[in-house]
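Quick start: read one record
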Amino acid sequence: MKTLVLVRHGETEGNSRVRYYGDTDIDLSALGRAQMRATRSALRSRWAGLPGPVFASPLSRARDSARLLIDEAGPLTTIEEFREIHFGLFEGLTAEEICDRYPDDYRRWTSDRLAPDFTFPSGETRRDFTARVERGLERMLALWDRSAETGAYALLVAHRGVIRTIVNRLTGAEPIVELGSIQILRCDSNWYPTWLDLVDHLSAL
């Protein structure tokens, strides 16, 4: 049986809790680093540290989060396709700012945020993003199979949109994916979720 552990990166300097940072590369904040240390403790206590290959988005907030989870040690493979969606003109803005500056685009976006034919203004289409992430997923699974560290576990640190796409593609589930949250998927003959949206390890922060 294989177990894939997916962790969303921690809070960023630009406050990812309320601002839409997609393809923009932005660093972890002090809170984000604390969230990753708490996540590392949770992984160690519940799953003995999850030995196996470690994958991450190439953006620094995900890559640095992964390094904190594995104590800066061991190999880390970045998957280019796991960059967050490019929000275009929405990059770096809050929902309120988007509504004020781009009201027509905001209405189209909020009518169905996951509509595959929606294109962020001057950004990426939802359909293209999903296809990109699915290509990255196939590549990651192939690398896992070929890895010298092939075993029961693998860890991926990425972004909300990437994690939601992967979980949905493999299991049909649609987690919320808060900052620092953990998703656990297992596979015997088929993939299924065993834990979604684990955040109790962050309650003290």
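The first helix runs from residue 30 to 47.
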